[in-house]
Amino acid sequence: MAGWILAQVAVTLETSLNLPGWFDTAIVSTLLLGFPVALILAWAFEITPDGVKLALREEDNQDGRPLSLLDILLIVGLSLVAIAVGYQLLSKSRTAPESSLEQAAAQLIPDADTSIAVLPFADLSDTGDQEYFSDGLSEELLNVLAQVEGLKVASRTSSFSFKDRSQNIMEIATLLGVAHVLEGSVRKSGDRLRITAQLIRASDGFHMWSETYDRTLDDVFAIQDDISNRILDELRTRIMGDVPEVQVARANVTAFDLVLRAREVGSTYSVPGHVAAAELYRQAIDIDPDYATAYAGLAAVELLNSNARGAQGRRPIAEVAPIVKPLLDKALELDPDSPGVWMRIALYRQFTRDLDGAEAAYKRAKKLQPNTNMTNYAVLLRQQNRLNDALGILERELETNPRSPAVRFGLVSGYVSARRFDEAQKIVDAMYREFPDLKGNFSPDFAQAEVLLAQGQWAEAIKVLEKAFEDSPDVLPIKFQLGFSYIALKDYPSAYAIGEPLLSTYLTGVTGNPEAALNNVLPMLGPGTPAFLYGASMFMAYLNGDYAIIADKIILEWPTLDGLRACDDSEFIFNFAAASYRELGRQNDLDDLMACWSELIEVRRRNGYDSSEEWVERAGYFAFRGDKESAFDALQKASNPALTVTEIEVFLRAMSLDQDPRGRAILNRHYADINRERAKLGLDAVEPPQ
């Protein structure tokens, strides 16, 4: 009975104290080995008032009595306990793990798997204000290990999502799909450091290696070198074979500290965060003018603070690009083989619309660091109309970055473009489970709104977007999506109430004064202006009948891709361009545009695009080609044409389909959809134009 109690205590202690998986097995095995010994001793000896003595032999038993009922019950009870404990032990070792988590672990983290996650080191400093340093040290180690060919390293986003974790190592490793975990702690006081690191095999909790370093801050790079190479030694010996040693880039320790602080404040992906990070990077450069990482970091936050597609700021990219270019040139000169530098070069080329150059830079970074996060590369592929390739990148990225909201959001957007709504919704549901409190660009609410809008559920989408806007009022993509959703339902007062100047300008045009709106937008155009502003100006010019402005200014100045025509850009608005050439009688220009339009539609068709916006685009092509039957068929397949930013009635007029009864039927259907959704929001019905 005492042995059985000890076995249960062992199981409880293993779970609550996160002890290795072999702990309870060792305890129970010892008890089983001792059980027959205990039985023999109990049979041979007895406890008497005079101490332990040999038990009486049968011939010495004066009473000659048989075993009593109590003796029999005791023996049977002990036997049953022994059988139960033995069965428990055997079933644990021979059968599959009981919980779904353990089953997943058995499949995802085999002992020989060459994969690792670097968890954020705990800040144990007395003042508790060194988290930026412990996080930065963890990230540096992760980046070094990520350069090792053949070693799968979980991304920073996923690993750092377990900061202040409640899960044990097996749970974390299972969720990240890795076989090994590096964890540790940092105690920093002045220039003194105590860093503890331990490498754990996730399948059984075995500590493969651990070390404590008591050094000065000047030794921080040597410590990183030692930790990285000790880990590789363990994996080299047990799993990977010959792997070259790695070395951490050196810098002035004060500049290094400033870079870590810059990363911390910039990780909010907000304009104030980018501004604060930029100042810290500049201080690091002043202290150490040869620190390539500081130049690359400053370039990145400057880019993210611009108005380029994918950035968060308002500064024109044409104004930011000349500032960023020399920073990247200097970083590349100082460290030509830095994957981080090449990733920033790729982002710069992507934001300045040199897409071929950006792709080459992403591939260079990937070669230098096999575990490089390629989420932005997937965005680039979408800009090149390569949807299937982009989804493939993101699906592979999810394997090493399963906790990344950006990867999840990219998948949602891609699946929506391919009209794969069930798959998109599964991703959104997972985002709500894993990131329920996340706000901003990649929040579950923003992703959910995208799925709802694509399915014509505008009222539900608006409710979700209103919550996202309340949580993140300064995030421009959320602000614009909410504003244009109001406009799609003709709820103009709500759109005005958002208070965004560009939305107000757009509303001025659609509510009857396109000339004023056009005069507002035209001064904003220039080198580096985002394509959506050119699109807005084209719309306003068409509404105002200024076809020459479209043909001779907007189309010619469209922010083209290097070496490509304007109409190769998926954001280009073909309907208004074609209508303008038609109105001006410029048939040769219209023929050239139609040829380009045909190529783009075919490229996008081959790449899996199947959204409502895509079918509206195809309808326009067929209409201008004179094939009205195909045009109306395409509009019927565009089950939700109101999702286009412009009003469907304007599209019908531009395509000369508004006078056809079938055009009127589509317009009526469009307004029926609008009024259905307006009713859900308590709004009165609106009438289609006569």
Automatic annotation (TrEMBL):
The keyword Transmembrane helix applies. The chain crosses the membrane at residues 26-45, 66-90. Keywords: Membrane, Transmembrane, Transmembrane helix. It comes from the Bacteria. The keyword Transmembrane helix applies. Gene3D superfamilies: Tetratricopeptide repeat domain (1.25.40.10), TolB, N-terminal domain (3.40.50.10070). This is Tetratricopeptide repeat protein. The lineage of its organism: Bacteria, Pseudomonadati, Pseudomonadota, Alphaproteobacteria, Maricaulales.
